[in-house]
Amino acid sequence: MNQPGEELSVICEFQSLSAVQVLRSIRHILAGHPEEGSLFDLYPHQNISLDKAEAYLEKSNDKHFGLIGGGYECHFGAVARSHFDLLLIKSAAPPSIPWDDWATELIKLPRFVMAWVADIEYACWQSELDPETYEAVGRLHKHLPRLRTGAPVPLRQEVIDITRNPGRRINRDGYVEAVGATMWFGEPFWTVTGADRKQLEAMEELRISECGLGLIRVEAAGECFRAAEGAIGKLQEKLHSVLFPNAKLTKPWFIHTA
What we know:
Blueprint: E1 6-13, H1 19-31, E2 40-42, E3 45-48, H2 50-60, E4 65-69, E5 72-79, E6 84-91, H3 99-106, E7 112-119, H4 120-126, H5 131-136, E8 146-148, E9 158-160, E10 170-172, E11 175-177, E12 182-185, H6 187-193, H7 197-201, E13 207-212, E14 215-219, H8 230-243
Antiparallel strand pairs: 1-6, 1-7, 2-3, 2-4, 4-5, 5-6, 7-12, 8-9, 10-11, 12-14, 13-14
């Protein structure tokens, strides 16, 4: 696993978005930056304009898409098991379009819940469950704690325990348990997570600004989290405890329930 770069994850309520609607928002952002190029890959098509990509989605009625071009990978679809819609935008290099510019447009999507920016490599390893993924790249894992999944044979009986990792990313019902150096929250977030907005606003480590319509932007650090130790690790854990107070009351998706 070697995935340099950063990613912006955007969560909206389940089945609140259409693929065409999301592509139009992406198109609007890219229209302000013509230097990013005008041709993209949208499976099964290659080197097409965003106009043609939108026309294809309207005709096909696809519920999800993957768009590659201009230095970005954009993936959209519904995560049915966890009941939310997800738009994931990856940039292998520091994004030429600031993440704030992306977020300013995307948090306007209907029933927006949350968004955050993460270092791809850090987030992946902090959330990796499979020891074989470690072994494939020669990364040590014997010292890491394990969890019994309770799943029936032949499914995996044991996974790496990521539930205490400061940079963990765990799908929950209607949201993702994840924190970032920069985050955005919509009004549905407080209901679905049980978090207290006043507690978040009381954290002296944060810079919080209003974005209108009940939306807020939260800045916890000047750059993406890339370490789980020391003061930065403690800050991530504090954010987890404030933002996701009910997460520990339910089993994560990878633990089998009869």
